[in-house]
Write a structure and sequence with these properties.
Oligomer: heterodimer
Largest sheet of chain B: 5 strands, mixed
Number of helices of chain A: 7
Helix content of chain A: 25-40%
Distance between the termini of chain B: 67 Å
Strand content of chain A: 25-35%
Structural class of chain A: alpha/beta
Order of helices and strands of chain B: HHHHHHEHEEHEEHEE
Structural class of chain B: alpha+beta
Largest sheet of chain A: 5 strands, parallel
Number of strands of chain B: 7
Order of helices and strands of chain A: EHEHEHEHEHHEEEEEHEEEEE
Number of strands of chain A: 15
Distance between the termini of chain A: 42 Å
Helix content of chain B: 55-70%
Shape of chain B: rod-shaped
Strand order of the largest sheet of chain A: 2-1-3-4-5
Radius of gyration of chain A: 20 Å
Shape of chain A: globular
């Protein structure tokens, strides 16, 4: 086996340097291939360098650690096991619960050498298992881990308590407010700081993030199919799989086609 | 007793229980009154017992039950200040009717027990009837007044207790918001690294943390400190954040000398600076600037906290609101209408948010 590689995403330079120094001491073989200071760079560099392990700080500027984890999981090349994720946090009680549930490893700041040694041992064992000839299973288990993590209550979306359900989307158009009943919405799509609201007739922009919107939608009715897309389930006409295994959704009465990420592909199986 | 809905039943448990308890007490008073009469005419102890006890009990029963029922009936029609007190006008009617009824019923019971046939209220002459009722009203009115005052006092005491609890809670929340755990643990993590790497800098950082913690603990108590002290504590906080954020955080603090000694509530500006960092600069990959400036406009002290962060977003459910609300509450408590906090998008083309506090300068 080649020397294992790792990427560290941490916005505080001192803490990043310290984590790297501790890792060098505890696990001399581990090669840190990149040190990045924000979420978007973590995604970009992870996809480019394909490290075995990614240490992700939860609170980072721009895209946070969880969003970065989701993007890495979705965009990782098909058929290859995504990297092992270790979250690093100073204090995020909801996140810790989610990590416990999803059996993802995490490290608390300030980093304690004994605890970090434990993490290294676990990572070594996991890499060991990966090199055994049954790659497919590890891809699926990594994905289901990520799914469990992202589905944890209180973690995605700022509010820890279930938010009130939205019945009408209030979209500002010039000086007017358009009232769009949610049952008329075909799908929502994240667009920078906004969310596009697409109905059969037209589309609106609302100033919120998909993350904040999601807890206010009925999860049985509105399905997330990609980190940037939430679709009304009864607006889906069919799901098509192409040669490379990618899933695409065709909508009823609308020309748009929506890509389904591998994290959510399990929703589309024949009954 | 009365037909009651389950919900009303649970609500009424306590009034009816205390009703029964008062009944027992009145029974004892009735016996006391009978004994008092018997002091004048010892041989008539039995007779005075047979009349005084049921009349006392009867008057109390009709008045007290009348009060509870009237209050309940009124409450069903609309919200009331005191759930068991219908107010004096209604209570006057209850007292009159209750006394007449109570007297009449008690008298009848007395007749039954003794076998006498003393004429009831209705068969007395009008003058005697009125004076009898007036006489019987006195203890009822006194008891009602006693009850009213006592429950008033109890309500006031409960309100005071509630207010005290609120104040304690607000103080705790203030402390919690200022000792934000994420900030604290990240600072400690940096400190831990610096101890090995750069001991003098670690010491300086520790001193800043100590000064900041001390100020935070003092701020949750009442009091004021000089504006220069306020700026020093904010500078400590910013220095701590600077170790963490490095180049991403640039700061500028402007305090004219003539304003340095003006008194301000401790750490009033801290939530604003924290919001600027947390919601303005931290989410921005490239970071930005925070500028803190004190100035004077006539008799008004103006404090501005300005950042070049990601700007105001829609009000969200996290800490933003609480920090601002807490600053507003403190200002309102200390200065009433004369102080205020304004939050707006900065309009000088550099983006970000501007928070402005205005305080009266005491002469």
């Amino acid at each position: 086996m080649n020397a294992p590689t790792a990427l560290i995403a941490e916005d505080e330079a001192l803490l990043a340097a310290h984590l790297q120094a501790e890792l060098a001491r505890l696990w001399p073989d581990l090669r840190v291939v990149a040190n990045v200071s924000h979420g978007a760079a973590a995604v970009e560099q992870s996809l480019a360098l394909r490290p075995d392990i990614v240490f992700l700080d939860i609170r980072m500027p721009g895209m946070d650690g969880l969003e970065a984890a989701q993007a890495i999981g979705e965009d990782w090349p098909e058929g290859e096991a995504p990297p092992l994720l270790v979250f690093v946090t100073a204090y995020d009680q909801y996140a810790l619960q989610a990590f416990e549930q999803a059996a993802v490893d995490y490290v608390l700041k300030p980093v304690q050498p004994e605890r970090l040694a434990q993490t290294c041992a676990r990572l070594r064992a996991a890499l060991e298992r990966r090199s055994e000839p049954q790659g497919g299973a590890t891809v699926e288990s990594a994905l289901s881990q990520l799914r469990a993590l992202l589905g944890a209550p209180g973690l995605v979306g700022a509010a820890a308590s279930p938010a009130a359900r939205l019945n009408v989307i209030q979209a500002g158009v010039g000086t007017a407010i358009h009232m769009v009943p949610v049952q008329e919405v075909l799908y929502f799509e994240a667009a920078d700081k906004y969310v596009r609201v697409i109905t059969a007739e037209r589309e609106h922009l609302i100033r919120t993030s998909l993350r904040e919107l999601l807890p206010q939608l009925d999860p049985d009715r509105f399905w997330q199919v990609h980190r940037g897309t939430v679709v009304r389930s009864d607006a889906i006409a069919s799901a098509l799989r192409d040669e490379s295994g990618k899933l695409t959704l065709v909508l009823r009465g609308h020309g748009d086609k929506l890509a389904v990420s591998r994290l959510y592909a399990h929703r589309f199986k024949p009954m | 007793m009365l037909p009651m809905t389950p919900a009303a039943d649970t609500l009424a448990t306590s009034p009816w229980r205390s009703f029964a308890w008062r009944g027992l007490k009145v029974l004892a008073i009735g016996i006391g009154i009978a004994l008092l009469f018997a002091l004048a005419q010892p041989h008539k102890l039995g007779v005075s017992m047979a009349y005084a006890v049921p009349i006392t009990f009867g008057c109390w029963f009709f008045i007290d039950a009348g009060r509870l029922l009237t209050a309940r009936w009124l409450q069903r029609r609309g919200p009331m200040a005191h759930p068991q007190w219908p107010g004096w006008p209604w209570m006057a009617g209850v007292l009159l009717v209750g006394t007449v009824l109570g007297y009449q019923v008690g008298h009848t019971v007395g007749n039954l027990v003794t076998g006498h046939n003393a004429p009831g209220l209705l068969f007395e002459g009008p003058v005697r009837a009125v004076s009898l009722v007036a006489f019987s009203l006195v203890p009822g009115v006194l008891a009602t007044y006693f009850f009213y005052t006592r429950s008033r006092l109890a309500t006031i005491a409960a309100q005071a207790q509630e207010a005290q609890r609120h104040a304690a809670q607000a103080q705790l929340r203030l402390l919690e918001s200022q000792l934000e755990p994420h900030m604290l643990f990240n600072t400690l993590a940096n400190l831990r690294v610096l101890i090995a790497l750069d001991p003098p800098r670690a010491q300086a950082m520790l001193d800043q943390l100590i000064a900041f913690l001390r100020a935070t603990l003092n701020a949750s108590r009442a009091g004021q400190h000089a504006l220069s002290a306020e700026f020093s504590r904010i500078a400590d906080y910013l220095a701590l954040m600077n170790v963490r954020m490095g180049e991403r955080l640039q700061t500028q603090l402007i305090l004219p000398d003539e304003l340095a000694s003006l008194p301000v509530p401790p750490l009033l500006l801290q939530p604003l600076v924290e919001n600027s960092i947390r919601h303005g600069l931290e989410p921005k990959v490239e970071g930005g600037r925070i500028e803190l400036e004190a100035s004077r406009e006539g008799d008004v002290l103006v404090l501005r906290v300005r950042d070049t962060g990601s700007g105001l977003s829609e009000p969200s459910a996290d800490g933003t609101h609480f920090g601002l609300q807490q600053v507003r509450e403190r200002l309102a408590t200390l200065y009433g209408e004369r102080a205020g906090l304004q939050l707006e998008a900065a309009d000088d083309g550099r983006g970000g948010t501007l928070a402005t506090i205005r305080l009266p300068i005491a002469p």
